[in-house]
Structure formats: structure tokens, C-alpha cells
Amino acid sequence: MAITGIEIFKLLPKTNCGECGVPTCLAFAMSLAAGKAELAKCPYLSEEARNKLEEASTPPIRMVTIGKGENAKKIGGETVMFRHEKRFENAPAIALLISDDMTETAIDGRIERFSNLVYERVGQTLRGEIIALKCQSGDASKYKALINKVMQKCKASIMLISENPDMLAAGLSVCSDMRPLIHAVTKENCEKIIALAKECSCPVAVKGESIDDIIELTTRLEQSGVKDIVIDTGASSIQKVLQDQVAIRRAALNQKMRSLGYPTIVLVNEMTDDPLKEAMIAATFVAKYAGIIVLSDFSGETLFPLLVLRMNLFSDPQRPLATDEDIYEIGCPDESSPVLVTCNFSLTYFIVSGEIESSRVSGYLLIKDTEGLSVMTAWAAGKFGADTIASFVKKCGIADKVKHRKLIIPGYIAIESGALEDELPDWEIVVGPREGAHIPAYLKTWKA
Ligand code: SF4
After folding, report:
1. What pLDDT shows up at residue 2?
2. 145 CB less than 6 Å from ligand 1?
3. Which of 1-5, 42-46, 93-97 has the lowest mean pLDDT?
4. Domains in the chain, ordered, with CATH?
């Protein structure tokens, strides 16, 4: 929220009834200011106070949802220019372009790649989210057939691309209940597409030739009651698009210009024919400041690094990336395989699991929740000591998976081995290497 806890407190009823889940209005105000509570939890707010607080809590860049249900993708909602100031809120959607003049083979290939290129990393699922369907043929029945095919074959939010209101109306006739993004409102088609967007309650992208055009269009949409807007500045050179992205973000955040306070879309597919260059340009706009990035095609070697970059930039800098507490099977472990334990700092997880994998000795890796702290930091903070490791080993179920009772701990916490043996009398505690790089050689000599 842009206002302080005390300012919020002044607008609350001050009866301390506790119905919001905290004992006092002051505590509720502080939770609201910290973004840890929702306004709706207090049933006794006056309408005036509710309106004031809702206005204060609206981010300078509006959050827009594309799609519905499990395919819904939120974009925008940003409050800072730079990640280190607080955090970036909603990662840009990665969209794949399919147009209705492509061959069936090309369309099927894109649908297949969209569905298959899905990655798990640090407990997160990384994938593209939107299929951008372009009406290139000018044939409404062909366009509808393409939309139907995509809806049947893959799980995705949809974006409809055309500047012809009749084609968009045809597209919406088959997919309006999926809440697709309509691209694009221009000066020429403005009235007709606003009517379509209002009828279907769908978000719309505005496209202009300059920022002044955009301001005019967003103002018109706002006055018509359409609030879910995405901005396409229409630029196609990297330099101009980048300038526009930065100018829009600055105007919305620093100058509080509501008419530019919307997420943006960048059609990278229109900026180059070279797939590698396309990935590099897309990476630029993951950082600055696209809400949706449209690619001409997906391939594993360019999509995966882009998704990992996106994940890293849109993580909270105040909270280290963490892996879920669990037993991870590396290779095909059996009841004689080694059991290693480490913390859940995701970098540690990736290094240790990678080294076990490269040793070609299958094993179980126990990941203990240390709130994302690394081994030594977690140990110093009391989150990776003998007592916490022992209680995790007892409850995680590893004793049912192996016959032996040998637990390999990181060399850096060798000092805990005696206490761990006291806590886990059935287990032999083995001090492993200090460095991940020494794990392969160590495991090759390991015997149950
Ligand atoms: S429910 Fe409202 S009035 Fe009651 S304690 Fe919470 S903030 Fe105060």
C-alpha cells in the first residue's frame, strides 16, 4: 500500500472487535500496510474509508488477468522501477504466435512445442502461458477453426490478434468465455472494439504510433468503463521499444500518470527473423518491462534460458530461492544407495544434485527446509543443527527406503556429527565432502 499503517488506522472503526483475525484495529492496519492482510477482512469499514483504501492500494501499474481458471495469467501490478527497491510482482507472460495462414504442419508443431516445453525448477513450473492467434487470412471461418483447434489441443490463455473488428468478433464467438486478450484497439477501430470488449468482459490491448496516441486511447477506454488494458506502443526497433518501455514505466510510477499505468506487450516476433536474436531481444524485455512477450516459435534451447531468467528476475530479492523440503531421488536409487542431507538453498540443491548425478552413483538427497539459507548460514542460525536434521530424518520416511543406516552430512557441519549420532542412535553419521565438486569422487568409494 502507498499509505502508512497509521494513516490506514485513522480510517478504521477502532472498535478492536477482532473479527478481521487480529486483536486490534492497529494490528490490522499494520498488516494491511505490509500487504499481509486484505481489506475485505474488516466488515465494518465505511464506504468512504473503503473507497479511499482501495484507491491507495491500487498499484500504479494496473494488474490485468488474461484467461480464466487454471490458465489465468496475471501481468502488471508493478510498483517499482528496479527489482532491488522491493521486488517485481508478476512475471511477463511468454506468448507463442500462431497465425491462420500457416500450414497445418507448422500449426501442429507449434502447439506441440507449446505443450511439451515445460520445465520444473526449484519447485516451480516454467512454461509459456499464452498462444497469440493472428488472423492473417481475413477468413473468419479459417480463424475460428484455428482457435477451436488450439483450445482443444492445449492448455493456454489466448490472445486474438487482428485490427479488423469482424475477425475479432468471429474469434470471440468461439472463445470469449476464456477471457482472451483482444489485440488491438487502434484509433480507426476504437468504437467497435470497445463495444466487443465490454460485451465479452475481455481485456484489450491498445496500439498507437506514439505514446500520445496511447494516452488518447487508454483515456477513451477508461471513460467507456474498460479498465483491463495492455499497451502496445507499435514500435518495432529494439531501441524505440526499449525507450517506450522505460518511458511508460517512469510515467506510471514516478509521475503517477494513470493513462499509462498498464502492463505492456512487446511483439518480439516482428523485430527479427533470427531465432537466437529473438531470444536475446526477449531477454531484454523480460528485464525492462514487458507484461507480455510474443515469440515467433518455441525451442528448448532458447525458451529454457528465457524462462530461468524470468524466474530469477521475478523472485523476491529479500527471500532466497528455496527448494521444497523432501526426499529427492537422483538416478535410480535402491535400498543400498547413499543418503545425503543438505539445506534447501536452491543453489546448494542444484550443485549437490548435479554432482551426485555426475558421479553416476544413484542416491537419495534429503533436502531440509532451512528457509532458503545456505549450509553454514543455516547452521549459524540454528536451522541446520543436529536437532532439526534429526527430526527431519525421522519424519521424512527415508528409513523405509533404505536398508542401511548411514547418513552423509555436509563436511561444513562435521561439528554436528556427534550430536546427530545422539539424536539418531540407529544411524551412523558420515561426514561427507565440504565442497560439492568432491562429491563424485567421494560417492565412487561409498559402500552401504
Ligand atoms: S474487524 Fe475491523 S473493526 Fe474489527 S478489529 Fe478488525 S479492523 Fe478493527
Report:
1. 61
2. no
3. 1-5
4. 5-57 (1.10.15.40), 63-313 (3.20.20.20), 326-444 (3.40.50.11600)
Question: DSSP letter string over 372-420?
Answer: T--HHHHHHTTSSSHHHHHHHHHHH-GGGT-SS-EEEE-GGGGGGHHHH
Total-model pTM: 0.79
Q: How far apart are the first and last CA of the chain?
A: 56
* pLDDT score for 13: 93
- The residue whose CA has the least distance to atom 7 of ligand 1 is 25
23 lines ligand 1 (CB under 6 A): no
Nearest residue to 410 via CA among 431, 439, 424: 431
The residue written with cell numbers 565442497 in the block is 435
Residue nearest to atom 8 of ligand 1 (CA): 25
* Residue 141 near residue 167, CB atoms below 8 Å: no
pLDDT tens profile 4-52: 889 899 999 999 999 999 999 999 999 888 777 888 899 999 888 888 8
Q: Which amino acid is at 145?
A: A
SS3 state of residue 167? helix
User: Can you give the pLDDT at residue 158?
Assistant: 97
**What pairs with residue 99 in β-bridges?**
134
